[in-house]
Predict the structure.
Amino acid sequence: MDYQKEEFESKNLDHLGIVAGIIDDIGIVEKINEIFLIDSREKINTGEVVKAIILNGLGFVSKPLYLFSQFFEDKAIEHLLGEGIKPEDLNDDKLGRVMDKLYRYGLSKLFLIIALELVKKYKISTKYSHLDSTSLHLHGEYNNRLDNQEKELEIISYNPILITQGYSRDHRPDLKQCLLDLIVSSDGDIPLFFRGGSGNESDKAVFGKILVEYSKQIDFESIMVADSALYSEKKLKLMENIKWISRVPLSIKKAKNLVKAFFSKELNKTEIKGCSYQLEKVTYGGIEQRWLLVESEDRKKADLKKLTQKIKSEFLKIGKQIAKLAAYEFEQPSSAICKIKELESQLKYHKISEVKIIEKEIKDKKVIYKVVGELRENQQLITENQNSP
């Protein structure tokens, strides 16, 4: 009997089959091709390249761009991307041209278009939208020509972001960074809008502009939620046609006075055990608002515990320095007073009292000065911290 030999070849799909299925279900390839159109001369179109970039990004690899095609050499690429597509079609020249197209169009704009398709398809609730930012640290020099120049912040601008030093949210202040602003839905935390920002950018400077631009591009009404970086008189006027929820910073005098006024009042009880509140109508920045003061017994106990630890830590730290200072000899009394004032500037929950300058004559009738003092709790300040909600 003659047996015909049949050759088989195995390729990997791993988790990428599921990812490709979701991309197809959302219709990302078709949507991108609607925007950038298809050139009949292309072996692989823009939408398919973007799909390949997503698959590569979720393939848990980190390789240079020129090795991109190698990622698909052991994958079932035709099953993932389309019939007739080969790994060599995904060369760095093709990728570079597609990424240039995406950049010129605007990545934030493109992301929002796809996100809105997702909202419609899966009926995601958009009653609330949450905005926040994070920092991503990077290794390397990143010598930006604009590092030392002041640059006006424009939200809708496609200038390159600056990789530079700034406030590090991931605790790496030694490294340069960039920022990521993200708006997500309250229903499932689905990303709706993203924007890359320069490493030294301030949330307070851009949050209001981001929400205004976002609200212009969406076709539904959403209540915007963000932290206190959103709240300032200037930004409130900018967002006068937007519904929003934010925390009012106690750095605002009106908020601080309102909190102090409630110390002597009994707050309203809620159905949640240990929680009470007070509602106040306030006009700030020319806009009428509702300010909600909330007190949680569990949170207050935790805060008081932290406060006690801070008071103890400060007492031990400064107490040791005062003891060392008592043994130090000064040539002038003014130098001793300056040293005491330097220590006082470090105090938050204590004050130095009973300060005395001791004059002492040593050999050859030379006079030296010593300073002593007592470290005591600043009871008024501690009481204010203990009573604050």
